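Handout, section B. The chain below has 153 residues.
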Amino acid sequence: MIGVTFASDARPAYPRLRDQWSHLAQASEQFLADRRAKDPAAITKGVMKPDEARQRERVMAAVVAIWRDVETLSELEKPSEWPHLYGASLPEIQVDLRGVAKATAAVGRDRTMIECAAALAWQFEPVAPGSLPHIWIAADHVLYLARTDREAA
């Protein structure tokens, strides 16, 4: 089983797919599609409440939107602005993606989806306690490099 490590853990690990942004964007879209397809049945069976399903969809839709901005080299606002821009806060995203990473590993999905789930969760964790998440810092750096390349050309 692939482990998931967070900033609060004593020994950090780096997910193998952490820099495979297109894979992570596609995985977030797949997780959202899975929720939209499966949550209604869970509600019908009484396993999930409608409010929980709406929250799950809202949070994963925010993750998808953030990855779309990252992939198009759009400037990401600081996470404090995410609730207004994307509809979910960083803490909500972190809790959700930690759960996705653990659940994906527990149900034994294919290795790539397990690794993508772990990398998605890792991307939204802080680089160091109290700092911004990996995804924000990496996206900001890539955007800086793209601007520098345009100015040099």
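Note. The radius of gyration is 16 Å. Compare this with the example in section A.
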